[in-house]
Amino acid sequence: MSKNNMKQFVVGDKIATLPIVQGGMGIGISLSNLAAAVANEGGIGVISAAGIGMFDWETQDFNYNNINSLRLEIRKARKMTKGLLGVNIMVALSNFGDLVKASIEEGIDYIFAGAGLPLNLPEFINENTTTKLVPIISSGRAAKIITKNWLRKYNYLPDAFVLEGPEAGGHLGFKIENLEDPNFHLKKLLPEVLEALLPFEQEQGKKIPVIAGGGIYDGSDIHYYLNNGASAVQMATRFVTTTECDASDGFKQTYLDAKKEDVVIINSPVGLPGRAIGNPYLDDVKSGLKHPFKCPYDCIVTCKKEQAPYCITLALINAKKGKMRNGFAFAGSNAYKADKIVSVKDLVKELVTEYNQVSK
């Protein structure tokens, strides 16, 4: 294998020899299997907490199911790796606080929190907590608001930030009209975030690492961002077409079959634009063939369930199981480039080789 010439990603006492964070993918796409495989390669493996308890439980207490499933997945991952593990928890989840507490109690290495500003995240930790707190943002303004708020209320400096650009998959923190605007490209946003954080770093005498994500696909992308101020990169889409990914074969096949024009922007019932792979289910939504439903979960605070034509949670559960006629796959802008299923080990090997070639 090519020698890994990428710089290590250091957050306090936690050192990732591979500066790649595997992005959290719900519902059920990134669980213990994928997270452990990435952690074993020196990166940070991430379990998505979104809808994690929607499978294989007989009780209808979804909060209870989600918390227990999250604990079980963290424990399963720990048995498979000695590497670094994180949990991705959406701020918009109705049981956000309970999921954060459970993750900290399980000794998770990182909590990545987006889909809203995690202004109260530090209130869940104490002096014995080893978990690092990493907000997910889409602008320098958001970085400034969170950092200022955490310092004022909790005297706590964010351990790192994930900056997610508009080419990411899933729910996006941008207005639809900004998704194609070059002023909102990740390459433009990164220096703005670094600049916003600089006064806090100087004042506190401590670096706040930034992880760049959204549309990062190969070793040359990694090289660009690591050499332009990012301390690590986040990649999600690339890990879907791995043997270890927790999604069904049918879900992965959707990526393999996708053409560039199949990757589309949708209006999600949760009130955000999202990027997905177009299919007959989404065509039916667009044509008005889906009708208002009775909400079975009440899982997302921002969900406009009174007007929603479908339940996004149910659609994503079906997709995870490969029932694509009753659901759809979220995906990043480069999902159509996937042409084969590979192991996480081989994918990392490929990324390292590509990175080294650009470094020469």
How would you describe this structure to a colleague?
With 360 residues, the chain is α/β, with parallel strands linked by helices. The protein has 2 domains: 9-246 and 340-359, Alpha-Beta Barrel (TIM Barrel); 249-335, no CATH class. The chain is built from 11 helices and 14 strands. It has helices at residues 32-40, 62-80, 96-105, 140-154, 186-204, 219-226, 237-240, 249-257, 280-286, 312-320, 344-359, and strands at residues 9-11, 14-16, 20-22, 44-48, 84-90, 110-114, 132-137, 161-164, 170-171, 210-213, 232-235, 263-267, 273-277, 329-330. The strands form 3 sheets. It has an 8-stranded parallel sheet. Strand 7, helix 4 (140-154) and strand 8 form a beta-alpha-beta unit. It starts with 8 loop residues before the first strand and ends with a helix. The mean pLDDT is 90.
